[in-house]
Amino acid sequence: MLETENARAVSTDGINWRIQIQSEIYHTPWQELAIPSNYDRYFMYGIWSKTDELAKTPVHPTLYQEHVEQSVQDLVELLTTQHEQVPFTARDDYECWLLDAKTYRPLVLIDSATGDEEPVFARVPSWYPCEHNDNSFSTTAFLARQQNVANSVHAKDILSNVIKDQVGTNATAIWVKRDDAGTGAGKIVAVNRKNSKLENKLLAADEFPALGIQTTWGDSDQRLITYDYISWLSPVLLTLPHLSPDKRTQLEQAAQKRPFAVEKHYRLYPEICDKALLKKILVEAAIRKVSGHKTESQYNKRKQNY
Length: 306
Hints:
Largest sheet: 5 strands, antiparallel
Number of helices: 8
Structural class: alpha+beta
C-alpha cells in the first residue's frame, strides 16, 4: 500500500492498484445542504496499472470533492516512481485478534493497522476464510458434512463454523501493539467488551499464531481443516515478511498446488527460499493459461472431467 495525505493505493499483486480517496461521510446524503460527519472513510476512485494507467470508476456525487483530483494526481505520480519497488516494508504492527472463548488466547487474526488512527472494532467481530463467492478451498476433514450435498456444505463454511464455535456466542476481540515489527510480544491496547483481566495485558510472542490462525486446538478434524486451509492459503501467506526459513520452505512446497495464485502474488514475496521451485510454478501457470484455463477452478473442473 502507498499512501498520501488523503489518498491511498492498494494492491494484492503489485501490478493493479486500487486508488482510494479519503472523504467525509454525509449524514443526509441526498439533501442539497448535507453536512459532513466527523469521520472519514476511503472510497474507490479507480484502478491504476503501468500498462493501462488510470481507469476511473463512478464517484458518488455527495462525496466531499475538494482537492480530490490533485490528491489522486499526486498519488499516481508516486506510484509511477515506486510501484516496482514492491514488496514495501510492513508497517502494520497493530493487530486485531479474535480470542478463544475458553482460554482467551489469540485464535485468528481479523485485521491489522499502522496505528496512525485509533483502532476500532466491527459491531460484531467475525472472521471468514475467503471471499464468499470463492469455493476453491477444500479439505478431507469432516467428510460427512461435505457429503451433505442437499445443504451445499462447503469447506469454507465448515471452517467458519469451527472458528465461531471456538469464539463463542459473545466474541471477544482485542487490538494489540506488537513488538519487533510484528513478531514479538503484544500489549493489549483495546478490548471490544469490558474485561479487566485483558486490559493492558502483555501477551508473549508465542501466544500469537505465526500464520494468523491457531492450529493446536480442537479435535483431529478441526486441526486437519486448519492445516488444509493454511496449505490452500500458502500463496498469500508467502507475502508475510517474518516467516522462518523452514516455514517459508513448507509454504512454498504447498503453494505448488495453486500456480495461478502464486503467479498473482509472487511479486510481493519478501524472500524466496527455492527459486527453482518458484520458476517451475510460474511455468506451470503459463502453460495452463496457454491451454485456455484462466482460473484454477476452470483447470480443476476440466481435470475432473477426464
